[in-house]
Input
Amino acid sequence: MGETAPKSWLRARVEKALVKGLTSTYSKVQVDPERFLIQLRTAYRLPISGYHGTYSLEIEELDVVADDVVRGGMKLAAAEGAGFGLGGLITLVPDLGILSAITMRTIQKLSLIYGFQFNTDNEIAELWIAAASAAGVDISRELIEKEFVNKFVPRVIQRIAASASADVVERWTGRMIPVASSVLGAGLNYWFVRAWGQRAKAHFRQRHLLLRSKANDATLSSAAQGILPA
Output
C-alpha cells in the first residue's frame, strides 16, 4: 500500500503535466508550416514549392529528412532532460511540459514532411490521431468528431496523457537518485522522443503511400479512358 500510493500520486501529477504540455502545444507552440517549408528547401534541398510537392519525390528521400528531424528532436529532448534532471523528481513536471512540446513539434514536422498540413479542422484532427498512434493509443471511430475539433482534441489529449503516464512513472522513478538523475533524465527523454517519433513517422508514411497509390490508380484509370489528368 505504501508503495502504491506514491506511484498513484505521481502518476496523477504526470498525467496532469502531460495534459498541460500537450494542450499548450495545441494552442500556442506550433510549427510554422511556411518557415518549415523554407527549411526543407534550403537545409534539406528538397525541390518543392509547396507540401503537395512531396508526392513527386522518392519516398526514401522523405524518409531521410524524417529520420533527421526525429534525431534532432531526440538530441534537444536529451539536453533538456539532462538540465532538468539535476533537480530529480522535483523538476519532473516542468520537464514533461517541455518534453511534450518538443515531441509534438517533432510530430508536426513529420506530418508536413509527408505532405500533411494542419490548417483545417479535419487536418488538425488527423494530426492528433497520429499523436495518439505515436503514444500507442487507438482512437476509435466513435471518438472522432472532426467537425467539433475543439472538443475532439482535448479528449484525445486526455487519452494520450492517461496512457503515457503509466509508462512515464515506471521509467522516470529512477530520477529520485540525485547523482544519476541528470544522465537518466537525458536518456529517458531521448528514448521518449525516439519511440514517439518512429511511430508517428510510420503513421504518416503509411498514409502518404496510400494517397500516392490512389493518385496513381486514378491517373492510370483516366489514361485508360483517354482522359488527360488536370
The mean pLDDT is 79. The longest helix spans residues 181-224. The chain has one domain: 4-202. Residues 4-202 form one domain.
